[in-house]
Amino acid sequence: MPKNQPASSKPVTRLAPSPTGALHLGNARTFIVNWAMARTRGWQVRLRMEDLDGPRIKAGSAERTIELLSWMGLDWDGDTIVQSSDLSPYHEAMKGLCAAGDVFPCNLSRGEIQAASSAPQEGASEKAYPRSLRPTNAGEPVEFVEETHNYRFLVEESSTTIEDLVAGSRTFRLPRETGDFVAWTRRGTPAYQLSVVVDDIRQGVTDVVRGDDLLESAARQTLLYKALDRPSPRWWHLPLVLGPDGHRLAKRHGDTRVDTYRAQGMTAGKLIGLMATWCGLRPSLEEMTMEQFLDDFNLDLMSREPITFTEQEHAWLAS
Predict the structure, then answer these.
(1) Quick one: 244 and 137 in the same domain?
(2) What is d(CA 7, CA 4) in angstroms, rounded to the nearest whole number?
């Protein structure tokens, strides 16, 4: 597989926003912690725009996201990858998976899959793709037809363990939890799991830092790394930011977009101050610079429990 970035002797991480909307406070926390980890440990930081989710891409969002990351005080090394600008690396990966018999075409609807998953003989959760729906020639080489089929990755009957440097050791039974998952879509684009792996390989990423809602994705991606004959990165999955109701921070909790608070007068110093309290660097809210945050940053001080965004913090940001 080609690599767009030059090889580096240093560890490499990445910031990978998706231009489907503005960054909210939870995204900002992950990007800032990721960046601070890199800058305090001598890692390189790559940037890419994950813009393959066509119908949800917002016009101008990529440019606004890059501007906002810079406003927050973040920087990065090397060229920025924009996924949609070149699909050839994903095509190359899929041709290899097809030739090895690691994937198979599947044109069943979600309703058909759900109906089969709910059948008593399956005993699997509704979201899992049942093994009974595999074609009889699954595991044999197949032709890669880019825009005709979904292709699913064959998940064998075994467990996958992720040794995460924040969340600890986690074991997943993917045959039961997800089944054979989609690697390529009939829209002619790679599914998230494959695109992330291909991009991390070509950007030389050695360390992936993101929210712990993606732990199961790490298990799926581990299988793809193995199939593509590449080592998995080190995983660092951070606890999520929750709303006052204990659920993941989302639209139900109001408008928590960084741009919205900035339009109301929030300074970058206030945002960084909030991140400092969430990371255990400050006992109370106070403005601070990114330089101060970086000087004080220590991942060991950060709670391994989810973080709750409070009404007091909202009022402070909006004041």
Answers:
(1) no
(2) 9
